[in-house]
Amino acid sequence: MYHRIRDLREDKDLNQEQLAKLLNISQTTYSRYESGKLDIPTQL
């Protein structure tokens, strides 16, 4: 699942920082979601 999230982000030509800003979260948090180190909350 996590690689799919990265693929979708890359398909939109966004870097992690840009997408994190759109989601109103830190880039570090987003990176942890994308790498699978942190579970993605259902509220996002």
UniProtKB/TrEMBL annotation:
The HTH cro/C1-type domain extends over 5-37
What protein is this chain from? Helix-turn-helix domain-containing protein
* SUPFAM superfamilies tied to this protein: lambda repressor-like DNA-binding domains
CDD domains associated with the record: HTH_XRE
Q: Which domain of life is it from?
A: Bacteria
